[in-house]
Amino acid sequence: MRSPAIRALSGVLAVAAALAAGHLLAGLVEQNASPFLAVGHTAIDLTPEPVKALAIRWFGEWDKLVLLAGMAVVIGALAVVAGLVSRRGPAPGAVLIAAFGLLGVVASAARPDVGALGPLPSLAAVVVGVVAFVALHRAGTAVEPSAGRRRFLVTAGGLAVGSVLGGFGGSALAQRSSGRARDALARRIPAPGPVPGGADFAGVGTPAFRTSNADFYRVDTALAVPRVDPDSWRLRVRGMVGRELELSLDDLLRRPQETRTITVTCVSNEVGGPYTSTAEFTGVPFRDVLREAGVRAGAEQVFSTSADGYTAGTPVEALLDPDRPALLAYGMNGEPLPAEHGFPVRMVTSGLYGYVSATKWLVDVELTTFDRETYWEQRGWAERAPIKVQSRIDRPKPFEKVAAGRFTAAGTAWAQPHGIARVEVRVDGGPWRDAQLSTEVSGHTWRMWRVELDLPTGGRTVECRATDRNGATQTPQRVPTVPDGATGWHSIFCTAR
Question: Of 64, 193, 349, 487, which one is least surrounded by beta carbons within 10 A?
Fold first, then answer.
């Protein structure tokens, strides 16, 4: 095969066919057994924590897409190399493709959320990739140029079409779910209640009080959204309990239902960051299930596990607290949970950062002690993570040019489960001024604020701080998100003119 371009294209098409075959078979076996996703998840697990924090800070909810795109570029480059080194015969490229495919086998075998059949998609990818590369190489080295060209184009075209169909087919198979169960669930979830008047100042720049499902923030470790069949879903409750339980979705639906409006906050939220949202969640009080199972003396945490293998640890006392909403939630804003937010069942707990309290795609809870470390604890995050008093300036925006004179600044504050009692704002380090607060819905939700400021012409720095109903005032000390959440006053610079 003389042409470098044809050799490179052969490598790319062979690897594409391999990944498509693996993805298609994973749709039949287990979604996360797809070699592309298995390697991606392993890369996430092995990435140092400072790099993960940097990725979230730079790319936010797009961090997974950036990782997948980066992987695609690296895989594409390796595919090109596999083609280029195979000038005289297919062996060098075939060996390189097989070696790379075996990484998928190892990665899928090591995944906690992939069963015994997990390595099969990657093994199939190795076989398909090697066979496809050998076939393309032979087609490209046919003795007669015209016949060889036709043979190569037919082979390449067939592989390209097959790769596209295999990729889409694998995704379609992975996303199949029971529409009947989802429709039945939808009928059991009450329509969202009215938002109290004055609960936000959206007209002057704050978010709406209730976040839509589409806009609710998402930060998790799943490269592909787990697709859990609600008909076969089960939740195990085990460990330090009087008796173990195994609950189906129907079992939960037969229990007394509770709907609560809760603000959920991510520990990765920088000062002034966007990773906090509010929704009306419907489900079963977690404490009712724990009481039925019987919490044994000495149990300290509920060690929860997601369908994708993620683990979290929630203090038992928080879940048993009668004054704190803690739900096994299956509804969100009057609808079944969206797939990306944990369908069919997730945890939602007021007053704790999400990484210890809001496990999505929940499949297992074990009552145990804090001696057992969770996913993020193993990576340097804190064992306990109560939400800190925080406030944010939503208007003006950083570096915004605004009209000099009277200006309405507005923002958001939160301190679950205690609630916000006061927000103060100042300009250029001057005296603090009390802001007007929105109608309080509960201590478990955020609260908006606004204040009229006098902004003389020129560059201005606006700062805010909040105080909760226990009298705790937001500290000015800046600390990063690791290990248990950021602190500091939010400030923005704007220009009045």
Answer: 193
- Contacting residues for 72 by C-beta, under 8 A, at least 6 apart: none
- Residue of 386, 438, 395, 454 whose CA lies nearest to 415: 386
Largest CA distance in the chain: 86
Measured distance CA(301)–CA(314) in Å, rounded:
5
Between CA 365 and CA 302 the distance in angstroms is 6
Cβ atoms 489, 463 nearer than 8 A: yes
pLDDT in tens, 80-130: 888 888 888 889 888 888 888 888 888 888 777 677 777 888 888 888 888
**Continuous H helices in 88-178:** 91-110, 119-140, 145-174
d(CA 492, CA 461): 6
Kindly state the average pLDDT of the residues 297-310.
95
Listed residue (248, 385, 251) closest to 312, CA to CA: 385
CA dihedral for 25, 28, 32, 33, sign (positive or negative): negative
Kindly state the helix (H) or strand (E) to which residue 351 belongs, with its residue range.
none
Do residues 475 and 449 lie in contact, with contact meaning Cβ atoms separated by under 8 Å? no
Give how far Cα 214 sits from Cα of 59, 183, 368, Å: 18, 19, 35
Residue 215's alpha-carbon distances to 123, 277, 356, 367, 441, in angstroms, are: 39, 8, 22, 33, 20
Strands 390-395 and 405-414: antiparallel
SS3 content of the chain, % helix, strand, coil (to 5): 35, 25, 40
CA 220 to chain CA mean position, Å = 3
- Looking at residue 11, its pLDDT comes to 85
Q: What letter does residue 208 receive in the DSSP assignment?
A: P
CA 45, 49, 51: angle at the middle one, nearest 5? 100
Say if residue 344 is preceded by a cis peptide, omega within 30 of 0.
yes
Q: What is the pLDDT of residues 33-75, one digit of tens each?
A: 788 888 777 777 777 767 766 776 677 767 777 777 888 888 8
Render pLDDT for 214-256 as a digit per residue (tens, 0 to 9). 999 999 888 878 888 898 899 999 999 999 999 999 999 999 9
**In contact, 475 and 490? CB cutoff 8 Å:** no
Give the closest residue to 129 by CA, choosing from 206, 14, 224: 14
Partners of 259 in beta bridges = 282
pLDDT at 181: 66
Alpha helices (H) in 307-463, listed in sequence order: 316-320
Quote the tokens at residue 239.
Answer: 């460990």
Note the pLDDT tens digit of each residue in 324-361.
Answer: 999 999 999 999 999 999 999 999 999 999 999 999 99
